[in-house]
Amino acid sequence: MAVDWLGVALLGLQLCFRTLALEVSVGKAPVIYAKNGTNVLLPCTFNSCIGIEKANFIWSHNQTEIFKGVVKNKDSKPEPHPEYKFSLKHMLPPDLPLSKDNREFNVSLLLLDADFEDSGPYTCLVKNPKEKDANHSGTFTLKVVVMLEKVDNTLTSIILSVVGGIIGLLILIMLTKKLVLLILKKTRKQKECLVSSSANENTENGGLPGSKIDSKPAPKA
């Protein structure tokens, strides 16, 4: 019995740890494309359900550290470590927002003047001492190209045009059908009205159409 309770307790602790653990996100796109010579934002955010205390974040490119910073608390913006404070290649964007709901923190990095050598995998790793130095990371790939490819929307436009044409044709058919039914209904009513009027005239004339009632003078006594 004691063993069962111990197992339940361990399972509860494990679920609690998973709930409170750090979560790092580097966006949904596994590959980011950038034009040669432009500045590129490398996305990274992390969540902590129990708050942070001098959370350290480390950026690496091809498994080599390129930047390191810290978020002191929920009310402070990320700051670079002293050795990266005057980096000419990487910097923290000046317009980074404060934490969202005191749970989500933005530690994105700005890559300046990207060149072809900057292509490759980038990893954002976060450590939070408040969660017993729990750490988590996210990785994506950057590809620096000469020119960004334009998305060809020709096929999409053709499909939308065909679908729009079909829908328009169906609407036209429905309207035509409704108009024809309306005309037939009016014609039917007119015929019924004529038949009814003719029947009334026959009744007033005392019989079939064309019949006449001979009027004879009364015999004299």
Show the helix and strand layout.
Elements (H helix, E strand, L loop, with lengths): L1 H19 L2 E3 L5 E5 L4 E3 L2 E3 L7 E7 L2 E8 L7 E2 L9 E2 L12 E3 L2 E3 L8 E9 L5 E12 L8 H52 L16
Parallel strand pairs: 2-12
Antiparallel strand pairs: 1-4, 3-10, 4-9, 5-6, 5-11, 6-7, 8-10, 11-12
> How far from one another are the termini?
134 Å
Structural class: alpha+beta
Q: Superfamily at the CATH H level of the largest domain?
A: Immunoglobulins
> What portion of the residues fall into strands of 2 or more residues?
25-35%
Largest sheet, in brief, is: 6 strands, mixed
- How are the strands of the biggest sheet laid out side by side? 2-12-11-5-6-7
Number of strands: 12
| Average residue pLDDT | 81
Describe the structure.
There is one protein chain. By secondary structure, this protein is of the alpha+beta class. The chain has two domains: 18-145, Immunoglobulins (Immunoglobulin-like); 151-184. The chain is built from two helices and twelve strands. The strands form three sheets. The protein has a six-stranded mixed beta sheet, with no helix packed on it.
Brief description of this entry?
By secondary structure, the protein is α+β, with helices and mostly antiparallel strands.
List keywords for this structure.
alpha+beta, 221 residues, Immunoglobulin-like
